[in-house]
Amino acid sequence: MNELKKIADFVGFCARNSIKGGEKLWYWIFFLTFFMSMGAFTYYEQFTKGLVVTGMSDQVSWGLYVSNFTYLVGVAAAAVMLVIPAYIFHNPEAKRVVILGEGLAVAACVMCITFVTVDMGHPERVWHMMPYIGKFNWPSSLLTWDVIVLTVYLLLNLLLPAYILYHDYHGTKANKKLILGVALLSMFWAISIHTITAFLFVSNTTRPFWHSALSAPRFLASAFTSGPAFIIIAFTIMHKLHIFKIGHKVIDMLAVIVAVAMQINLVMLMAELFTEFYNAGAHTASAHYLFLGLDGYNKLVPWIWTAIAFNVTAAVLMMWEKTRTNEKTLLFACGLAVVGVWIEKGMGFVIPGFIPTPIGEIFEYGPNIIEVKISLGVLALGMLVFTLMMNALATIKREELGAAESPY
Amino acid sequence: MIFKSDNFTSPDPKKRRTVKALGVGVAAIAGGLASSTSPHAAVSNDKEMGELFQDHYKKMTAEEVAESIARLEKRYKRQYDVDITVGNAPPKEDVLFGYALNISKCKGTRECVKACTAENNQDKEPNMEYIRVLEMDQGTMNLESANHYYPDDQVTPQPGKMYLPIQCHHCENPPCVDACPVGATWSEPDGIVVVDYNWCIGCRMCANACPYWARKFNWREPNLPKEQINTKTHYLSNRPREKSVMEKCTFCLQRTREGLLPACQQACPTGARVFGNLLDPKSEIRYVLENKAVFRLKEDLNTQPKFWYYAD
């Protein structure tokens, strides 16, 4: 009973502190509320009329929602790049900020789950997936695997920092072995969420563009590019806003990870291009559609070449030490990597799998305004979750994280 | 307080809370106005409550299935103003259905497609079709060079062309069944792959897994004019569907389980279609399989279709 009261105390404290703030915080919340509300009302329309209001079709049955989901799984997985140095190698710089990475993973997981939900035709039937009550088609359906790994990853990233903070709050001692064990588990789990999300696509033997053993490794490489790049940008913003002091060492470490992962990603891209195009048979049609266009249909061609240009530029800027350690060029390169990978692994990966259809029809897809509005709403939700968590954290861990007394 | 600044907020905490709540409210209303929803957007969704909590078809007891059917018939009556009977005939013993199609006889008239949409209560205008007839140049079987949309009124067949109708192949090793996260689609003992429309969550995993593009999704509430409804239906087949569920060819099990032939087979003017029980050695389909050079589409994917093509 006493323990329960202590937990309630802690949760109440966090909740109170998450919305404590001045003018700027509330303007930011109003701003996010606008987009969330727009997304919610637009979703209401989609729910009542059916998915016919989106740009999707029987030919291309997944679109922007699943593309964003795929991308954000990578962002969530990237937290592992702080977890490994912090908990395994006891790098003090990483240890100081690992909790921010975990917060980002939670926000990304929330967005992933929301994107999958808005893509479903019957979200009110989600209980059909529960074992015993419903019918959980595990292990043969890859979607059931994805549900398990995402939910558990969300919990791991929520509960591990909560456990540490809880003991900080009450001034009690946390079990170090337990922390190390959970950190190790979440490390493997980060790899698994992205591998299984890739398998969701790879398992479709009839779609050669996805059905490649390289899909999962490429997912990991691009996740460890865009994720840490995203974290670098987020950390810099938080540093500039004096929310947290982020040391240079962490940024440098992450920048090296982005540089290496981007190069691996590009090598894999080349391997894929060779395999697809050297013996250009029927299996090449989707790749042909993506990179060169097929029978006059070429909606994705400028899109993917933009991504490749962004990724190559980012790789060059990150490889050269002078531009990697310069804040401006580093941020620019990270921005390119985030957008480049979002294109490449989002719509650049999901859509060509559908074109042509398994019986050879070419039917193009582009997201429409409804999908864009709902996606913006989901992103706003994720940002709100992240903001509130960081806000609470800033109060709790002010000294350790060096959040200065606000200058505003 | 990380975003600490007090010129925005009143010193009175009560007033401060009001300002914040007001701000969130205004932002929410503005967001609502920026969405595309119109007051007339909603399609009435008059479902029986019981349907919301209904169990999986295979997990229901006989009484629960009967209740569910009564509920459905009542709703259909209200929705379409016609008496629709929802059958529940089980698969017959020692029956495994198979189909064979003679591509040298097929003339591409699309009579099968029309009969199918008349039989199975699909969404109309634009018609949802379970059968896609491909028009291809003679001398190739490359599906990607096929024409899916040759005009309906063209005097078929065109010289130098061949026709290949594709529908659900009712695989013995169906990838769609594996892909479904909730087991809403499965293979019946008589070999027919069916969908429980009340259990499907609309994730479209199955459609992505199908090598024959046989699964069709209800992107909208189906448009089913009263006069075009086939009132004789089966729970696992042609009963009227709702929006956001998957559906597909069921070899017309509402007919074939009662000894009739599928609508597409009956409609074919050239007799290109042979349907029957693969376990009956005297059946016509067995004769075709044993005496003709047959082939199956995409056999390399190991889906083991029960749909063969042949030429003579």
Structure characterization notes:
The complex is a heterodimer of chains A (408) and B (312). Helices cover 72% and strands 0% of the residues of chain A. Chain A contains 16 helices and no strands. Chain A has helices at residues 2-18, 23-49, 64-77, 80-88, 92-119, 142-170, 176-202, 215-240, 248-278, 285-291, 301-319, 321-325, 327-345, 347-350, 369-396, 398-401. Chain B has helices at 13-34, 49-52, 62-80, 111-119, 175-179, 205-209, 253-256, 263-267, 284-291; strands spanning 85-87, 97-102, 132-137, 161-166, 185-187, 193-195, 216-217, 232-234, 246-247, 273-277, 294-295, 307-310. Helices cover 26% and strands 14% of the residues of chain B. Chain B has nine helices and twelve strands. The radius of gyration of chain B is 25 Å and the shape is globular. Chain B is an alpha+beta fold and 312 residues long. In chain B, the strands form five sheets. A four-stranded mixed beta sheet of chain B has the order 10-2-12-11. Classes of the chains: A mainly alpha (408), B alpha+beta (312). At the A-B interface, helix 2, helix 6 and helix 15 of A face helix 1, helix 5, helix 6 and strand 7 of B.
- End-to-end separation of chain A: 42 Å
Q: Share of helix among residues of chain B?
A: 25-40%
What oligomeric state do these chains adopt? heterodimer
User: Total number of helical segments of chain B?
Assistant: 9
Hey, which two chains have the biggest interface? A-B, 81 and 73 residues
Strand content bin of chain A: under 5%
What number is the mean pLDDT of chain A? 92
Please render the helix and strand layout as text:
The complex is a heterodimer of chains A (408) and B (312).
Chain A: H1 2-18, H2 23-49, H3 64-77, H4 80-88, H5 92-119, H6 142-170, H7 176-202, H8 215-240, H9 248-278, H10 285-291, H11 301-319, H12 321-325, H13 327-345, H14 347-350, H15 369-396, H16 398-401
Helix pairs in contact in A: 1-15, 2-15, 3-5, 3-7, 3-8, 4-5, 4-7, 5-6, 5-15, 6-7, 7-8, 8-9, 8-13, 9-11, 11-13
Chain B: H1 13-34, H2 49-52, H3 62-80, E1 85-87, E2 97-102, H4 111-119, E3 132-137, E4 161-166, H5 175-179, E5 185-187, E6 193-195, H6 205-209, E7 216-217, E8 232-234, E9 246-247, H7 253-256, H8 263-267, E10 273-277, H9 284-291, E11 294-295, E12 307-310
Parallel strand pairs in B: 1-8, 2-12
Antiparallel strand pairs in B: 2-10, 3-4, 5-6, 7-9, 11-12
